[in-house]
């Protein structure tokens, strides 16, 4: 996809490449955080680094949802001949922009507020931190698509 100029011009393939990059970022973060339960001194020595890795993987996971929604809606509109395959409608651009603004906001609050930390064997929100109160409200209200209770609402133990 990266080398074929004709495929790069089609907007839907570019959106799929963005999803590929987001997945690759998640892969790197999960690979790095895989060492955290094996070597717990990494998280104890550098909470800032471990919080960065956790916040990044969490935010990249959240960034995928707007892309998947826009990609599926645009494909439906293209099939129904309501949209040009090479141009994205303004409402769909709005979904992507809102999704990235939300993702970056959650990433910064989680990382700089040190709220997203590595627990015993997985990632959890530390509700004793100053930024956790706002993240709890954001994550609870913005994820109604999920049928299960979001992992971000579990108390730190």
UniProtKB/TrEMBL annotation:
UniProt KW keywords: Membrane, Transmembrane, Transmembrane helix
User: Where exactly are the transmembrane stretches of this chain?
Assistant: 21-39, 59-78, 90-110
Entry keyword Transmembrane helix: yes
Question: Which domain of life does the protein's organism represent?
Answer: Eukaryota
Is Transmembrane helix included in the keywords of this UniProt record? yes
Full protein name? Uncharacterized protein
Q: Which organism is it from?
A: Ancylostoma duodenale
């Amino acid at each position: 996809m990266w080398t074929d100029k004709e495929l790069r011009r089609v907007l839907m393939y570019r959106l799929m490449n963005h999803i590929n990059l987001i997945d690759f970022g998640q892969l790197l973060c999960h690979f790095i955080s895989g060492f955290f339960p094996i070597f717990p001194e990494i998280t104890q020595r550098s909470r800032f680094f471990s919080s960065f890795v956790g916040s990044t993987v969490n935010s990249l996971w959240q960034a995928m949802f707007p892309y998947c929604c826009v990609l599926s809606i645009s494909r439906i509109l293209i099939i129904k001949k309501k949209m040009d395959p090479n141009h994205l409608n303004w409402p769909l651009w709005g979904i992507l922009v809102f999704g990235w603004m939300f993702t970056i906001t959650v990433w910064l609050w989680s990382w700089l507020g040190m709220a997203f930390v590595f627990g015993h064997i997985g990632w959890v929100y530390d509700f004793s931190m100053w930024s956790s109160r706002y993240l709890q409200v954001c994550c609870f209200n913005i994820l109604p698509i999920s049928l299960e209770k979001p992992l971000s609402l579990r108390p730190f133990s």
